[in-house]
């Protein structure tokens, strides 16, 4: 008998798992967005470069170009990431009191716009969308429109509850609420605070309460 052939096979060597590419890509993606925000705050958008982002994030330029076509596109995703709206979902509170809910939303919007960490980032993307129509379209679709639609839905619920007059256009009311806030932030025409947000809401409510 051939004893070599009759021997039971030994345990196979365990192959160590390879690197988790998806996890590594996720870390690199987050690092690039974080580096973009930090550099915009430090040097401004005009001096922001792909090379600088790559160096700060610890990745190669080709990694960045694999995901984004321009620094404007990176900036846009950095804004979305900062606002925790990557999936575009927005949900407004519904406590049953439309005035209280809209007041909370407006105040939170004001706080986000004047936050020093966000202000320069938001101004950079606002300037960029004046010439980059592709980024402008994405900004509306993924950031502004979800907020307006959610506000419109809350106002429509207020109509159903008898707290808002049935003749009003919920979409127009949503624009009336956020328009003055954005105008004051963009042009720096005065203080942007809770008092201003409350004043805007009170004026709008005067026009939309049931007659």
| Low-confidence spans | none
Mean pLDDT: 87
Topology-level CATH name of the largest domain? Tetracycline Repressor, domain 2
Distance between the termini: 104 Å
- Computed CA radius of gyration, to the nearest angstrom: 25 Å
Please state the overall shape, judged from the principal axes of the Cα atoms.
Answer: elongated
Total helical segments:
10
Overall tally of domains: 2
Region (Disordered): 1-26
Organism: Arthrobacter stackebrandtii
Keywords: DNA-binding, Transcription, Transcription regulation
Protein name: AcrR family transcriptional regulator
Task: Give the arrangement of secondary structure elements.
Layout: H1 3-6, H2 21-43, H3 50-57, H4 61-67, H5 71-82, H6 98-114, H7 116-128, H8 133-160, H9 170-187, H10 194-208
Helix pairs in contact: 2-3, 2-5, 5-7, 5-8, 6-9, 6-10, 8-9, 9-10
Account of the 3D structure:
There is one protein chain. The chain is built from ten helices and no strands. Helix content is 69%, strand content 0%. The chain folds into two domains: 22-67, Homeodomain-like (Arc Repressor Mutant, subunit A, Orthogonal Bundle); 98-208, Orthogonal Bundle (Tetracycline Repressor, domain 2), CATH 1.10.357. It holds the Pfam family TetR_C_11.
């Amino acid at each position: 008998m051939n004893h070599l052939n009759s021997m039971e096979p030994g345990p196979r060597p365990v192959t160590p798992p390879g690197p988790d590419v998806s996890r590594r890509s996720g870390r690199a993606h987050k690092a690039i967005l974080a580096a973009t925000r930090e550099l915009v705050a430090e040097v401004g958008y005009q001096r922001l470069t792909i090379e600088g982002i790559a160096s700060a994030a610890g990745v190669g330029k080709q990694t960045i170009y694999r995901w984004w076509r321009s620094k404007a596109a990176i900036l846009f995703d950095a804004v979305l990431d900062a606002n925790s709206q990557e999936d575009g979902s927005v949900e407004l509170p519904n406590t049953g009191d439309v005035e209280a809910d809209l007041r909370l939303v407006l105040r939170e919007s004001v706080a986000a716009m004047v936050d020093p960490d966000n202000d320069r980032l938001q101004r950079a993307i606002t300037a960029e969308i004046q010439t980059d129509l592709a980024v402008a379209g994405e900004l509306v679709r993924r950031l502004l429109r979800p907020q307006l639609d959610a506000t419109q839905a809350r106002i429509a619920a207020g109509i159903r509850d008898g707290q808002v007059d049935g003749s009003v256009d919920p979409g127009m009311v949503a624009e009336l609420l956020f328009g003055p806030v954005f105008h004051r932030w963009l042009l720096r025409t005065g203080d942007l605070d809770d008092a201003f947000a409350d004043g805007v809401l009170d004026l709008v409510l005067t026009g939309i309460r049931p007659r």
